[in-house]
Amino acid sequence: MLDPSWFWALFTIIAAAAQTVRNATQRGLTASLGTVGATHVRFLFGFPFALVFLVGVMIALDQSLPIPPLVYWPWVIDGALAQIAATALMLAAMNERSFVVVYAYIKTEPVQAALFGLLFLGDAVSPGTAAAILIATVGVVTMALKPETSSDLKATMMGLGSGAMLALSVVGFRGAILSLGLSSYVMAATFTLCIGLLMQAVLLSLYLWLRQPAVLASIMTAWRPSLFAGFMGALASQFWFLAFALATAASVRTLALVEVLFAQGISRFIFKQATTRRESFGILWIVIGVVMLLWTH
Fold this sequence. Notes:
The protein is an all-alpha fold.
């Protein structure tokens, strides 16, 4: 039987796997909805499933909805807005020729999450965990950066900025979950997921309605394929939030780098794309970092 202290690791791996599927589904929607539309699907169609999760938790635990304290709202607003900002930076990066470089810098998120977690939540990082975070991050950067890829200041700033927003987002959501002070981390995580997705769905729907109403109409037309993407997005977020309730943002997001391994596996075994020596070297560093993280936790 799995030790409950390891639940955060199990939740993180499940979330990373679900997110890999969600990303693949969203890529399929990009052709018809565009990048912004396909991105909005995760919030708009994810929210109803998050509500179902919340009702299920209420019934299973026989608990009513919590009443959030005032301190809860700055945390959850930070989480929701920072995640939107991170997405916007990534979308802008897709228009850059050096997107691979940007992606590499985005994946510095675990390092930044460790810094922000310590600064805002007092989440201390042991020397062993810090080493694991750095090693795994080096692995991802090694996989993403190609020798012939040129960098520039704009790409660097966009990548680091997106990674910083992602780090602030996960720290914000963890802060919101902890600030509820509930005895059930499942209720705290699920309630916060619903609040966060509601904010994001409303804000992005309003943006599209004002700026790109045709995209919003296209999303409504493509509701059938969007449902699966929304479900996988909500499922991934549900397990991310459960993990954030039990472990530091830095630990969760470092272990989340196994998503890169899942994506590499899909590329290798489904699309029959060969793995280069550089990618193999990066995978080795990621595996070493993840093993160290679990060993020191």
